[in-house]
Amino acid sequence: MRTDFSNFAGKFFYLETYLYDALFLFFQICFISQLYYIANNHGRLAWYKPVQQLQKADIPVSVIISARNEENNLKYNLPLILEQDYPDFEVIVVNDCSVDESDLLLLEMQGRYPHLKVVTITEHVRFKTGKKFALTLGIKAAKNEHLLFTDADCTPASDKWIARMAANFTASTQIILGYSPFYKVKGILNGFSRFETLKTAISYLSAAMGGDAYMGVGRNLAYTKTLFFANKGFAAHMHVLSGDDDLFVNQNTTSTNTVVEVHPESFMYTHAKTTWSGWYRQKTRHMGVGRLYKNHHRRMLSWEALSGFLFYILLALCLIFKFEPILAIGLYLIRLLTQLFIYNKAFKTIGGKDLLFYLPLLDLIYYVYLNVFGLIGSFIKTTRWK
């Protein structure tokens, strides 16, 4: 009996040691993966130097804004866009089924700004329209080849916004990815929203710099009319509520037709959601489109999110069960210091250096958020874009 127990205890000890070894090996795999994403993928933006001297651009540009019940935002932001320092541009506002007094405001503004064009969509009882339909009508109404997109709640950082973005168009450049940060206000939700926006921007801008763009943000995005119609616009994903920006870029970008613009004068600022319910609706809508990305982009983003999440889970297990705790902490510190070094430079380019102090906590929450909302977005469908 004693011998049997000894054999059992020996086998159990061997199994326990084997399990710990396997978990620690997987922890190291996650560590190496994370280090690769941070140093290689995210590092491109850290070393990028925006062009300081504004390049002369005078190509005709059409700015397109889709707005639903945005009277107050249009009242404040639209003049700042209409009064941009640029020689040849028009602004098209698609008034998408608004029930406020946007129509009266836009009519009054047309009297003051002859380069403002308004396209009105009225609600139909049987047919519901979304943002992609509104943007398509705006693009059809545009008289110019080069299109620049933003939202009604976005404020240009300067009167050089159009000039900065348009200067990137060349014979081969068809897509320009801009940056749209959130305003800084007090509160946990604002802090995390700003951090998530920064991390997303570092990822998609760096990917574009490496010739493998996978998304853009519609608050600050430009592309050509020819590209839009040559690829049948949003037809491939018209059934999906979101994706007028990231899915369009994902499906139409190449290694040579996409560039980025991250000079501070080109930023488009907006306000983050102020309630958790509004933030939840926004994130479930955004996360749902990732499954339609190209396969290699899905794999890349999924493993980045999962390896980051598992890195923290396995780190916690190593510390709880005291299995190589010093080495585990050492790997954590190497990753953290690499992040601080890379993100310090990247945040200097696109703002947000105040968030570096909270990086250990925000980064943990970020990877939990990615995995939780990735699952939610796979099962829950939203039915409205506003």
Description:
This protein has two domains: 20-46 and 296-379, no CATH class; 61-289, Spore Coat Polysaccharide Biosynthesis Protein SpsA, Chain A. The chain contains 13 helices and nine strands. It is α/β, with parallel strands linked by helices. Strand 2 (89-96), helix 4 and strand 3 form a beta-alpha-beta unit. Helix 11 packs across helix 13 (359-379). Mean pLDDT is 89; it is low at 8-15. It comes from Mucilaginibacter limnophilus. It holds the Pfam family Glycos_transf_2. InterPro entries: Glyco_trans_2-like, Glycosyltransf_2, Nucleotide-diphossugar_trans. Residues 62-187 form the Glycosyltransferase 2-like domain. This is Glycosyltransferase.
Give a quick rundown of the structure.
The chain has 386 residues and is α/β, with parallel strands linked by helices. The chain is 53% helix and 11% strand. Strand 1 (61-67), helix 3 (71-82) and strand 2 form a beta-alpha-beta unit.
List keywords for this structure.
seven-stranded mixed β-sheet, alpha/beta, membrane, 386 residues, transmembrane, transferase activity, 9 strands, Glyco_trans_2-like
Give the strand line-up of the largest sheet: 3-2-1-4-7-6-8
Provide the CATH superfamily of the largest domain: Spore Coat Polysaccharide Biosynthesis Protein SpsA, Chain A
The stretches of 5 or more residues where confidence is low (pLDDT under 50) are: 8-15
Provide the number of structural domains: 2
What is the number of E strands? 9
Proportion of strand residues = 5-15%
What is the averaged pLDDT score?
Answer: 89
Number of helices: 13
Q: What is the CATH C level class of the largest domain, in words? A: Alpha Beta
Order of secondary-structure elements? HHEHEHEHEEHEHEHHEEHHHH
CATH topology of the largest domain: Spore Coat Polysaccharide Biosynthesis Protein SpsA, Chain A
Give the CA-based shape: elongated
Looking at the overall shape, the CATH architecture of the largest domain is: Alpha-Beta Complex
Q: Structural class of the helices, strands and pairings? A: alpha/beta
